[in-house]
Amino acid sequence: MIIVNLDVMMAKRKISSGELAAKVGITQANLSILKNQKAKAVRFSTLNDICKALDCQPGDILEFRED
Amino acid sequence: MGYNNGIIRWTKIATVLFIAMAVVADVFGIVITKYIAYCWADVDVTDVTRVAIMAVIFYLGTVGGYVVLFALLKLLSNMSKDKVFDRANTNLMLIITLALVAIAIDCAVGGFIWNGAWILTIVALFMGLIVMSVRVVFDKAITMKEEMDLTI
Q1: Where do the structural domains in chain B lie, given as residue ranges?
Q2: What is the domain range of residue A9?
Q3: pTM of the complete model
Q4: Which of A4, A5, A31, B149 is the most exposed place for a label (fewest CB within 10 A)?
C-alpha cells in the first residue's frame, strides 16, 4: 500500500497544516484526508504543489509498504 | 434544475395517486376479488374457499404494492433534496426489487386460480429487473463519486 508521509515532511520543514494548505491551494479538510491515509488518489498538480511548498521530491512524501 | 424538479414533483403526485388507488382497491378488495373470481376466473358462485384464497392473494399483493409505492415516494423525496448518489437510494431500490419479486411470487400463486395473474407475475419480474439494473448503475456511480471525492 502507499503511505503518505506528509506529516513527517511537514515536521521537518516546520510548517503547519493551515500554512501548507494555503500554499498548495487546497482546503485543510482535504489536507487532513491526505495526511490520514484516507485519500484514494492524488492529482499530479497537487503533488507538484506540495513538493514545491515543502521543497522535496514525491518520494519523500509517498512510500510503498507491503500489505 | 427547475425542469428536473418539475419531473420529480409530477412523479410524486403520480405516486400519491397510485397510493390512493391502492387504498381504494383495498377498500373494495372483496368486491374486486369476487368480480375477478366470478367474471374472469369462472369460479363457481358456491366455491367460497377459492374466492377467499384469491382475496388473501389480492391483499398480500397490495401490501407489496404499498411497500413499492412508499419506497418510491421516499426515493423521490431524496431526489428533490438533491440526495441523488446516496447509499440510502440504492437500499430503497433493493427494497422495491424485493417487494416486486414478492408480488411476482404472490401473483404466481394466484395464477393457479386465475390464469391472468401470470401476466402480472411477468410484469412484476420485468419491473424488478429494470429497478435492479438501475440500482447497479447507481451503485457504480456512488463508488465512482466516492473515489472522486477522495481525490486530492
Answers
A1: 5-151
A2: 2-64
A3: 0.79
A4: B149
Q: How many distinct structural domains can be found in chain A? A: 1
The per-residue pLDDT for range B20-47, each reduced to its tens digit, is 999 999 999 999 999 998 888 888 878 8
- Do the chains contact at A39 and B150, CB–CB below 8 Å? yes
The sign of the CA dihedral B13, B18, B21, B27 is negative
Best residue in A2, A40, A44, A49 for a mutation probing chain B (most B CBs within 10 Å):
A40
Beta bridge partners of A64: A2
B62 within 8 A of B124, measured Cβ to Cβ: no
Give the model confidence (pLDDT) of B78-133 as tens digits.
999 988 899 999 999 999 999 999 999 999 999 998 888 999 999 999 999 999 99
Cβ(B66)–Cβ(B22) under 8 Å? yes
Q: How far is A47 from chain B (nearest CA, A)?
A: 9
User: Nearest residue on chain A to B143, judged by CA atoms?
Assistant: A40
